[in-house]
Amino acid sequence: MNSSLILVILAALLVGVGVYLLLERSLSRIVIGVAMAGNGINVLFLVAGGPPGAAPLYVDGELVSYSDPLPQAMVLTAIVITLGMTAFVLAMAYRAWQLNGHDEVQDDLEDRRLAQRAARDAVDARATDDDGSTLDDEARAAIDEIFDEDANAASPDPTGPAAEGRAP
């Protein structure tokens, strides 16, 4: 097996695991996912640079085959970007831990309201009674109740650390 193929498989594995961890709800797993995906991209840059060669210098007045310095410069830039992203997500995780006592990403309440409106419109457009009229207010109230229970479950705890005066 060629060493370039092994590095391509390693890069694909690192990026795949990194993307999987980025899709988690815990910010600490997201931090690890950012680092793994960044390292996978760095390996991919180095593989794309081609085989190693000599330094880009003239030897005895002739230009010999040399290593391309561009992928190495791109890897250095990617390292800086990955470090910045990791620091940013770590700061978000620390702040979430201070406010909530955990680092789990919460659902967006506005997103729930839009989903509720879309579900209500879809039910109104599709469902009809036997006589051909649309659903009555009872069905709408049932839909609203379901989404209100979900929104109340996702809302922050009023007795948590934020209620104790530690909020910004």
Throw out a few tags for this protein.
single chain; 168 residues; two-stranded antiparallel ribbon; mainly alpha
What is the secondary structure topology, with strand pairs?
Blueprint: H1 3-22, H2 27-48, E1 58-59, E2 62-63, H3 70-100, H4 109-126, H5 137-154
Antiparallel strand pairs: 1-2
Task: Walk me through what this model shows.
The protein is mainly alpha-helical and 168 residues long. It is 65% helix and 2% strand. Strands 1-2 form a two-stranded antiparallel sheet. Helix 1 runs antiparallel to helix 2 and helix 2 packs antiparallel against helix 3. It is elongated. The chain starts with a helix and ends in a 14-residue tail after the last helix.
